[in-house]
Every structure is written in C-alpha cells, then in structure tokens.
Amino acid sequence: MGRFERPRTLKPPALPGDIYFPGPLQTLGDHTFGRGVFEPGWRWSQHVKPIAGTPSCQAAHTGYVLEGRMAVKMDDGTQVEYGPGDAFHMPPGHDAWIVGDKRCVLIDFTGVAKYAKPA
Q1: Residue 111 placed within a domain
Q2: Residue 6 pLDDT > 60
Q3: Distance from the Cα of residue 22 to its chain's centroid
Q4: 13, pLDDT greater than 50
Q5: d(CA 42, CA 48)
Q6: Is the residue at 26 inside a domain?
Q7: How many CA atoms lie within 13 A of 11 on its CB side?
Q8: Confidence band, pLDDT 50/70/90 cuts, at residue 110
Q9: Average pLDDT for 54-81
C-alpha cells in the first residue's frame, strides 16, 4: 500500500510554472506512480525541456485528472485537452501546458519515474 503524504518538490511550489509532487512517488510491484500538481503557467517546453534535453517529452503518461485542465500537443500536430474526471494516455513525443488560471492535479501511473530527467 502507498500513500501520498510527503512532498517531493521539483521546484518551490506556488510560483507560475511550478510542478511538484505533494506525496512521495509510490512503487507497487514494478509500477511507479505519483500525484502531480502543475501550477498555472506551467508548460513542458519551457520548464522541463531544458532538463530533459529533448525536443518534446519522450515519456509516456497514463493517468487520471483530478482537477484543472491540461492541453497536450503531439509532435504530429494533433492536440487534446484533459479535465477533471478524464483518463488519459499521452504517448512519447508531446508538449503539454496548463489551461486557465487553476492548477492541474493528476495521477500519473506510467510516466512519472522518467519525468524531468535528462535523456
């Protein structure tokens, strides 16, 4: 059993463009997942691309949105927006950003172990 209680902050929270994980990453079996909080103004290509060193996010993400909205644009130009109650799968090769002025909170079941790490 895992719990999301101790924060794992990638940057100090509550600033435009911040993302943080308000609980530790959980590993059950060989699956690592986490609850991510993306503050308004966050955009992968601005905030994570310099860390990853890739032109787009190369991690696949599968999860569920708890609150807020996130837009995703694939390298081929297709675009989708996710909101509360939406399950999602974002294959490798995408940019993503927060839509509106509310944070986006989601559970990522597949991509969080590789998130914001150099390629």
Answers
A1: yes
A2: no
A3: 13
A4: no
A5: 9
A6: no
A7: 14
A8: confident
A9: 96
Query: Which pLDDT does position 19 carry in this prediction?
Result: 59
Q: Which domain holds residue 67?
A: 38-119
Alpha carbon separation from 94 to 3, 7, 73 (Å, rounded): 29, 26, 5
Asked whether the predicted pLDDT for residue 9 surpasses 60, the reply is no
On whether the CB atoms of residues 82 and 88 are closer than 8 A, the answer is yes
The structure's pTM equals 0.79
Q: How many domains does the chain have?
A: 1
Exposed/middle/buried for 79, CB within 10 Å: 0-12, 13-18, 19+?
Answer: exposed
CATH number for the domain harbouring residue 106: 2.60.120.10
* Number of continuous H segments (helices) and E segments (strands) in the chain: 2, 10
In a domain, 102, yes or no: yes
Residue 54 lies in a domain: yes
